[in-house]
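Q: Fold this one first, please.
A: Sequence and structure below.
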Amino acid sequence: MAQLGKGKLNYRCPSCFFRDLDIDMFYDKEKKEYHCIRCQYVASEDEILKMNEEIRTRYKYMDRRITDFEDFSF
């Protein structure tokens, strides 16, 4: 998803992204936290980065073609 401005980087909402929805989170400068307008998920930047790393395991083998399943472990 394209970044709308040149401000702080927008992150994807981890809660929505687990359900294959690509929703940007918005940053609240006063509270120093991010929130999602779709599911009302609220978290700090550290929590979002941690959850996004967990989500990346879902796409671990996305760029590989798997032909031999005997040596392959999930």
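Q: Good. Now the second chain.
A: Here it is, same layout.
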Amino acid sequence: MAGIEHSVLQPPGEGGGRPDRNLALELVRVTEAAALAAARLVGMGDKIAADQAAVDAMRLVLDTVDMDGVVVIGEGEKDEAPMLYNGEHIGTGSAPQVDIAVDPLEGTTLTAKGMPNALSVIGLSERGSMFDPGPCVYMMKMAGGPDVADCLDLDRPLAETLRVVAERKACDIRDVMVVVLDRPRHEDGIREIRDAGARVRLISDGDVAAAMLAVSENSPVDLLWGVGGTPEGVISACALKCMGGQLVGRLWPRDDAERAAALEAGYDLDRQLTVDDLVRSDDCFFSATGVTDGDVLQGVRYTGKTGASTESLVMRSRSGTVRRVSARHDRSKLRAITGTRYG
């Protein structure tokens, strides 16, 4: 398969020293649009309307990006999602051919309740390189930064992994913080973490943001642990391939029927998947824009009658460049251009 840089960015016969096209710099417009649309519904108690606003705005801008994209991780199957469904072709149809993973609004409940850490996120990689979760909606995950990337192992007892992480970080185990989704299924693991002497930071939603927090420099969190969404695992892998660090995951069927479907489809339920399994390309792109204020990004802020500001993270794995983009927007001009309500 031709790499992205050769399929779109370098004219035939030209050398490899010429800078190629960074699609992440175009994707930031996509997540900004989704965040601006969803943010007008922060605290309004309607997570469905907030999600739909983000989907509509993301879809509108995605169709202006010069690419032939297929949604691998989307809003669901065609009959269940009006836009950005799995298998949908998006973009202008020109090269490159790419896989797309989207979550127009990660944290719909967070947005509806006006809580922190809601994001709009998108990941992109070469066609055929993203992991298809199939019937498995959930996976067990563990993620950490570059300094502990080789310490992550779902087969080792959790308490032992925490001791290894503390040793690697040259700190007391009491200084290790683990971010965990607040779910009944995690009660035993939370107890094990605390019994080992480490601390737990519970979150209600948003494990893409949590994975990014676990690998960020100067973060209060050392590890992400627990069962979360498999699609979110693929999106997180895009970010982590750019930021560094590691995520290991194992598919986690919810019941016997889902287990049987996964086995019939040929999935290995014992295998530990890494970021390189979830996104096989070495040239992937990621963008995230804050909807509500959080640990990773500031949310949308409003100024005057038509002004707004956003903060985004824009990344590319091939170069390892991570940009933090602060932008000011005139919503009246955006509405005039797109015909879409930006608040």
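Q: Anything worth noting on the second one?
A: The mean pLDDT is 89.
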